[in-house]
Amino acid sequence: MEFALSEEQRLLQGSVGRYLEEMSTLDAVRETAEAEAPLSREIWKGMAELGVAGVLVPEEHGGLGLGVLEAALIAEMTGRCTAPLPFVGTAVMAPIALVGAGSDAQKATWLPQLASGEIIAGVAVAEVIGAREGAGVRFANGCLTGSSLFVIDGPAADIFIVSDVNKALYLVDGKAKGLARKKLTMIDLTRPVSELVFEDVEAELLPEGGPEIVDAMIDAGRIMLAADTLGAGDMMLEKAVDYAKERKQFGRVIGSFQAVKHLCAEMAAELEPCRSLVWYAAYAQGATLQDAALPDGRLMACHAKAHLSEVGRFVARTATEVHGGMGFTDLLGLHYWFKRIGLDRQLLGGPERVREEAARLQGWAA
User: Which of 20, 33, 63, 142 has minimal Cβ neighbours within 10 Å of its Cβ?
Assistant: First the structure.
């Protein structure tokens, strides 16, 4: 039995990684983060040409027809390069919604456009995970009313996939009358999110949907955030090791000091086992979107998200400490990875909430 990645999976991850290393440089990330709409359509266009935008879209609709594991391998590379891309919402969560819940006409209309990178899809499901008092989206008389925070890929979205309080899914035009989007200034400027306010907004029901599709979207989204954290943490570790080999103190490189060696070793020891956890959590979602998830698919998604949230924070803090005062400067740009990990930790549920869900799945909590 083969437990490693296939040659095709390694080639896919390698191709995406090389492209992002060339295009999503620190200067490009800094320039995009300072823009009004922090998202690089130029980089996304190139990713679409590599097939990334359609990684989960079935082949009959112009995509690659791959699975969540392949998407997680891509997400790891986006984290390594803090790529300012609409990957989690547009390439992962939206296709899951349309394939699982959309009608044949909706699939034929929207999936090819997602696969080609022609449109960006925002995903509004945060209120299903933990709604503020009086918040949430409700459907009545053919229209949506209410509000949703932390809409992934929201500021630049052309369409939205929206879950109401009953976990029914709807498709909303980004220019629909009565729809207001408010850009949220988050700690991570490389991943734009927004708040949506609905005032009798016309919406198109995804007729085949149900709570299980919303759960599948959230599970896959959490795995993508975990993989993104893995990639960002891996890069922060590499930067810390490289810096320790160059920075001199008392006539010696600081990497020769036992305390610094221990910090780097602890980061590596915490981070490396996370890779197999993320891989299995992604594998457990099914080989393609047409395949059923394994019985422990939801539980593993929770474990991956919660554990990577904690390990990512440890690595981000420790790598910054290795850099000393330079770690806090914009010159090195280490803060982009630090903040990326911070937002990954909170999106789609912080570790405390996700662990509570895992406990419920196992019958350990009411």
Answer: 142
